[in-house]
């Protein structure tokens, strides 16, 4: 799963390149930097994998999703349909831009469903912020039908789904703009880093300026640049970009390994009664960073978690209860607790966040247990792990079968 497993000489060499010039800043200093441009290299590597026309390396995935939203024109008072199962950064980005999150139903792809989106549309809906969760991909054909039918803007938070694709198109590139995270836990890491992508030049230029105090990045005299818009500092440093570039070069290898490991375990687990797997929009495009097991019910899933704990099985997430990725745990969002007033406090929330009716989402996340897939796993380890998982599920199923 995480690129950190494969840290090595390549990352060290990239960092040493940067230290050799002392130019840790991604822009300018053309004469001193000995033609070393790591942020640009990182962007090129991301473009090679995804096929994006434009890529912008930024300080983190949260900045990338903020840039994707604002460069797509999302701002104050705009209703943005979003999932209740995501990393909280998606919701924070919408709120800090003045947008109004509208939570809609996900399905067994762990992403927003087309019908969930359609039901959440109001006359004030401007955009959908689709999140491709757990390394997978959403059901894009049916989602794009809804986006087009209702003339909505699509922004994709593919923070967890770099290198995942649907029918040949990479996540992040179906709508106006997309975002990937390269934080410490991802398929490739920059330590802290993000990549914004788009196929549209105007959207790219807006993001490029937004992430660096409005600079237009023309010429080599920073003080003399024009500022087409107001921006902020979401720049990546050359040191982080250096690591990101080296890691991104390893992604195809990591993805291949993930896929074969995931296939191996799924095959072993498939015969166990009670185990099924989360769906993918396009299975062949999975980045396979997570093995997502679905149990028959929330009650059984909770019993499986207890059995895992008793058996000493580690490395899994039961998002329904104990993680920061699901709306049930987001009391600060439900109560709109912020350090200072946001647009949503003035304009009012479009939904009662404390009393959302999202039964399908509650059902799916209640049944879901995810394991992060690891490159280092051996067949022996995976066989033993699958056996232990099966045993635990069988025990948890017993009271049901008895
Ligand atoms: C779906 C999603 N979006 C955004 C982010 C934020 O990325 P970062 O941690 O790089 O800011 C994450 C991080 O986990 C994520 O999973």
What does this structure look like?
The protein has 402 residues and is α/β, with parallel strands linked by helices. The chain folds into two domains: 3-251, Aspartate Aminotransferase, domain 2 (3-Layer(aba) Sandwich); 252-401, Aspartate Aminotransferase, domain 1. Helices cover 40% and strands 13% of the residues. The strands form three sheets. A seven-stranded mixed sheet has the order 1-9-8-5-4-2-3, sandwiched between helices. It has a four-stranded antiparallel sheet with strand order 10-11-13-12. Strands 6-7 form a two-stranded antiparallel ribbon. The protein starts with 8 loop residues before the first helix and ends with a helix. Bound molecules: pyridoxal-5'-phosphate. The site of pyridoxal-5'-phosphate has 15 residues, from helix 3 and helix 4.
Instruction: State the strand order across the main sheet.
Output: 1-9-8-5-4-2-3
- What is the CATH architecture term of the largest domain? 3-Layer(aba) Sandwich
Q: Overall mean pLDDT score?
A: 96
Beta-strand fraction estimate: 5-15%
What's the tally of helices?
15
Overall tally of domains: 2
SSE string, helices as H and strands as E: HHEHEHEHEHEEEEEHHHEEHEHHHHEH
CATH superfamily of the largest domain: Type I PLP-dependent aspartate aminotransferase-like (Major domain)
Helix share, percent: 40-55%
What characterizes the major β-sheet?
7 strands, mixed
According to DSSP, the number of beta strands is 13
What distance lies between the first and last C-alpha atoms, to the nearest angstrom? 38 Å
- Stretches with pLDDT under 50, minimum 5 residues: none
CATH class of the largest domain: Alpha Beta
Ligand inventory reads: pyridoxal-5'-phosphate
Radius of gyration: 22 Å
Q: In CATH terms, what is the fold-level topology of the largest domain?
A: Aspartate Aminotransferase, domain 2
Spatial shape: globular
